[in-house]
Amino acid sequence: MIGLIFQLIGAYFVGYCCCIFLEAPANLRFRIPVIDVVGWLVYLIAVDYLQWSLPVSTYISSLVIAIMSHVFARRYREPVTVFFLPGFFTLVPGGGMYRTALAFIQAETTTGMRELGTTMFIALSIALAVFTVDSFVNVIYNNKRPKFVRKNRRLIFRKPSEK
């Protein structure tokens, strides 16, 4: 339990340092890392307690980070990327890329390919979560239908009795 608390404090510190590095607005520098802490907490629960795989855990925590980023962006009237970037710093698979490069340098091809596959799936799960939430928000808030539906709305949504 103490280890979990230290990890959450570390996640807050990472988020805060990222806010300073990326020059986030000064009035949000203490609020933005909350997204990082919640995302890391979801990741730890999924990996440690629910025993889910790393890509699935990363996808679920990335969904939480992306949703919270959109909520905070609407609440504080700032761009979503101000909240996205610090939130994903703890989930980016930098260690996996290091282990992949190290395995290939040491001529351990099977270990390198396994690490590369895991790292790529983790990175893909982050990108997929961002895409999923952005698409959902785009549909909900902007009421944008696909171009075909907008163009042929009268044909698609007409009543059966009309001709």
UniProtKB/TrEMBL annotation:
Domain Threonine/Serine exporter ThrE: 7-135
Places the protein is found: Cell membrane
Transmembrane segments: 6-25, 32-50, 56-73, 80-98, 118-141
Keywords of this entry: Cell inner membrane, Cell membrane, Membrane, Transmembrane, Transmembrane helix
GO cellular component, one term: plasma membrane
Topology within the bilayer: Multi-pass membrane protein
InterPro entries membership: ThrE_2 (IPR024528), ThrE_Dicarb/AminoAcid_Exp (IPR050539)
GO biological process entries: succinate transport
Family indicated by similarity: Belongs to the ThrE exporter (TC 2.A.79) family.
Designated name of the protein: Threonine/serine exporter family protein
Native source organism of the sequence: Aerococcus kribbianus
